[in-house]
């Protein structure tokens, strides 16, 4: 078993001559594609020529993989931030890749310009069937494209109208510090410390953080008004009706299913109210404050060495499907998982899968119990990636909103199996933590979606709104999901100043979307082990169709509110389980 990455699966060293050979081959392939198709647009008129062009286009992605050298140096960087040679080489490659991409941008633009009637015919063609979903996406996106000069202007003003505003607030945030004893903590460190501190300290620390945020809230007020106003202009020009439509299209989702999700979760805020009432009881507090919402109960769970985590995952994966086990074993054998934290190694955990090259998983494994779940989560992404590899290159990438279905499904497999082995006290702590995470992933994110929708509407109607209005809007929506057990103070609304999610307009729904579908898949599997075949069909479907259609093909209709209600009911059941386990406290 290897616990460090073997990047030799990509290249031998920084100076491996193969890196330059591959880059040259990629550049030749892109140049040849441009030469063949930029001026001779016969493929816009002949189906035979279009099939050939699409085959040529997709072969650009894996033969050799354009991003291989870039990823190689990125991985080296992630293991050792001080490797400046790798950083320089990565930047050089990135510049070359951007030039490459510019050579082929014309192709999708040309396809998008095919007249609507001809597009319809192409989508029905038998010969083009393998490319149907790809073409459908290109055509859908094109409906919202503007003329070339207009696109150019919008592209040019993106930086002053959006990015420089967001970066400006970030700069102020990064300079903001909180006095704690004789230390000065950066604001983000202080905010993350709140949930791990004892009652008195966390409430004081939270108050200090909110005051510090208030001190720069005037800038954030201008920033939010500017970027939301800029989005309004773009949406009007591009013909997006609602402020969330562009995001939904980008994730290849269906508006009906996303709105059904938002409605179902909003209607079920009572479930999260019930959780916070129970949490107040378990913390022995008459009521909670905003700073208490994510705090844990009881002692941390026992330590789990990595060898034990591996044994657990091997046992669970093996009992579900031998294929999962053999993927895990292969990763451990070949050195595709980098396990432990080290000085200079990047934080957090991820799985990085790319077309035409091996997938790598990065962990920062300390022996804390939730690290086992993180390991299971990243392996879920890895298994999804491996099982989608036999697909044609155009479809190996999956949508953001299906990615989290796979990862959290594998968390469920492992959680349920480990849970049974815990002592009663450990069960209480683990179950509380799991529900707490579900509430944050589902209810909090949808409350944020509702907040964003109101924020955008208010700015669209009134032209601009004040920081006090933004603050009270935020409090209103946070209160809606937290319920009567949590008393909000005016000052809490300053949270908006630093909430980065709201600057990535409406993407928060994708968390709730993934988490609830994965709960439904797990519930089906628990009822009937034969459902595994359908789970595997989803895991091998990559991005061959929209998330809605992929799930529909295995009997799950996410456009119906009832579907979402079922998933929410499973969280309620977990709360009932926790109530039972703690009824004598
Ligand atoms: Zn993930």
How do the helices and strands line up, and which of them pair or pack?
Blueprint: H1 17-37, H2 47-59, H3 68-79, H4 84-112, H5 116-124, H6 132-142, H7 148-175, E1 177-180, E2 183-186, H8 187-194, H9 199-215, H10 217-238, H11 245-250, H12 255-267, H13 269-282, E3 288-289, H14 306-320, H15 322-334, E4 337-338, E5 350-352, E6 360-362, H16 370-388, H17 400-419, H18 424-462, H19 467-482, E7 486-487, H20 509-527, H21 532-539, H22 547-552, H23 561-581
Parallel strand pairs: 3-7, 4-6
Antiparallel strand pairs: 1-2, 5-6
Zinc ion (ZN) binds next to α16 and α17.
Describe this structure in words.
This protein has 585 residues and is mainly alpha-helical. The chain has three domains: 7-144, Up-down Bundle (Butyryl-CoA Dehydrogenase, subunit A, domain 3), CATH 1.20.140.70; 242-299 and 426-585, Oligoendopeptidase f, C-terminal domain (Neurolysin, domain 3, Orthogonal Bundle), CATH 1.10.1370; 306-419, Collagenase (Catalytic Domain) (3-Layer(aba) Sandwich). The chain has 23 helices and seven strands. The strands form three sheets. The protein has a three-stranded mixed beta sheet with strand order 4-6-5, with helices on one face. Helix 14 (306-320) packs antiparallel against helix 15 (322-334). 35% of the residues are buried. The mean pLDDT is 93. The structure holds zinc ion. The site of zinc ion has 4 residues, from helix 16 and helix 17.
């Amino acid at each position: 078993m290897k616990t460090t990455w073997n990047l030799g699966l990509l290249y031998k060293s920084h100076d491996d001559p193969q890196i330059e050979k591959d880059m040259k081959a990629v550049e030749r392939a892109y140049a040849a594609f441009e030469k063949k198709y930029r001026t001779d647009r016969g493929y816009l008129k002949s189906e035979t020529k279009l099939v050939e062009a699409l085959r040529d286009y997709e072969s650009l992605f894996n033969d050799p993989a354009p991003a291989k050298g870039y990823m190689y140096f990125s991985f080296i960087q992630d293991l050792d931030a001080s490797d400046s040679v790798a950083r320089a080489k990565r930047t050089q490659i990135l510049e070359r890749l951007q030039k490459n991409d510019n050579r082929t941008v014309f192709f999708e633009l040309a396809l998008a310009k095919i007249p609507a009637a001809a597009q319809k015919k192409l989508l029905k063609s038998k010969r083009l069937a393998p490319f149907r979903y790809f073409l459908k996406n290109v055509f859908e996106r094109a409906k919202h494209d503007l003329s070339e000069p207009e696109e150019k202007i919008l592209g040019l003003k993106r930086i002053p109208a959006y990015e420089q505003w967001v970066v400006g607030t970030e700069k102020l945030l990064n300079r903001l510090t909180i006095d704690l004893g004789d230390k000065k903590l950066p604001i983000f460190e202080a905010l993350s410390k709140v949930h791990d501190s004892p009652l008195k300290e966390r409430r004081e620390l939270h108050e200090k953080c909110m005051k510090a945020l208030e001190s720069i809230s005037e800038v954030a007020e201008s920033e939010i008004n500017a970027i939301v106003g800029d989005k309004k202009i773009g949406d009007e020009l591009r013909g997006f009706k609602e402020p969330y439509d562009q995001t939904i299209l980008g994730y290849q989702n269906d508006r009906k299913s996303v709105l059904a999700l938002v409605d179902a979760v909003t209607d079920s805020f009572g479930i999260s109210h019930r959780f916070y009432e129970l949490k107040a009881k378990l913390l022995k507090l008459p009521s909670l404050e905003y700073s208490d919402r994510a705090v844990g109960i009881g002692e941390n769970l026992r330590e789990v060495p990595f060898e034990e985590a591996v044994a657990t995952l091997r046992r669970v994966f093996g009992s579900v499907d031998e294929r999962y086990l053999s993927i895990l074993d292969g990763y451990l054998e070949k050195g595709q998982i980098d396990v432990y934290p080290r000085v200079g190694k990047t934080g957090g955990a991820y799985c990085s899968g790319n077309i035409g090259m091996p997938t790598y998983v990065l962990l920062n494994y300390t022996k804390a119990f939730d690290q086992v779940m993180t390991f299971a989560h990243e392996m879920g992404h890895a298994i999804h990636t491996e099982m989608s590899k036999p697909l044609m290159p155009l479809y190996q990438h999956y949508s953001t909103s299906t990615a989290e279905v796979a990862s959290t499904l594998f968390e469920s497999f492992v959680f349920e199996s480990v849970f049974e082995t815990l002592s009663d006290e450990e069960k209480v702590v683990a179950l509380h933590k799991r529900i707490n995470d579900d509430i944050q992933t589902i209810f909090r994110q949808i409350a944020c979606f509702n907040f964003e929708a109101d924020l955008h509407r208010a700015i669209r109607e009134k032209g601009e709104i004040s920081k006090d209005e933004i603050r009270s809007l935020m409090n209103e929506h946070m209160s809606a999901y937290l319920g009567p057990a949590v008393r909000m103070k005016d000052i809490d609304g300053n949270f908006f100043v630093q909430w980065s999610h709201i600057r990535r307009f409406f993407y928060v729904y994708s968390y709730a979307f993934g988490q609830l579908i994965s709960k439904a898949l797990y519930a089906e599997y628990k009822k009937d082990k034969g459902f595994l075949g359908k789970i595997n069909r989803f895991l091998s479907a990559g991005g061959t169709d929209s998330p809605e259609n992929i799930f529909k093909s295995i009997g799950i209709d996410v456009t119906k509110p009832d579907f979402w209600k079922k998933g929410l009911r499973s969280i309620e059941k977990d709360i009932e389980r926790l109530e039972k386990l703690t009824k004598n406290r």
